Amino acid sequence: MTSAREDQPVRPTAEDEVAAAGSEVIGGPAGRRAVFGGGWWTAARIIIALAIGMFALGMVQKLPCYDSGWFFGATAQYTHACYSDIPHLFSGRGFDMGVVPYFDRIPDSVSGGMRYLEYPVLTGLFMEIASWLTPGGGTIQQREQLYWLVNAGLLMVCAAVVVTCVARTHRRRPWDALLVALSPALALTATINWDLFAVALLAAAMLQWSRGRTLAAGVLIGLATAAKLYPLLLLGPLFILCWRAGRWRAFGRTAAGAAVAWLVVNLPVMLTHDASGFHIREGWARFYTFSQDRPIDFGSIWLLISQRTGDTLENANTYTALLMIIGCLAIAALGLYAPRRPRLAQLAFLVVALFVLTNKVYSPQYVLWLIPLAALARPKWRDFLIWQGCEVIYYLAIWMYLAYTSGGDKHQGLPMEGYQLAVVLHLLGTAYLCAVVVRDVLLPERDVVRQDGSDDPSGGVLDRAPDVFVLGGAARTHDVARFEGPYVRWGAGRADSGQVSPIE
Question: Which of 51, 63, 220, 435 could form a disulfide with 163 if both were Cys (CB 3.0 to 4.6 A apart)?
Answer without folding.
Answer: 51
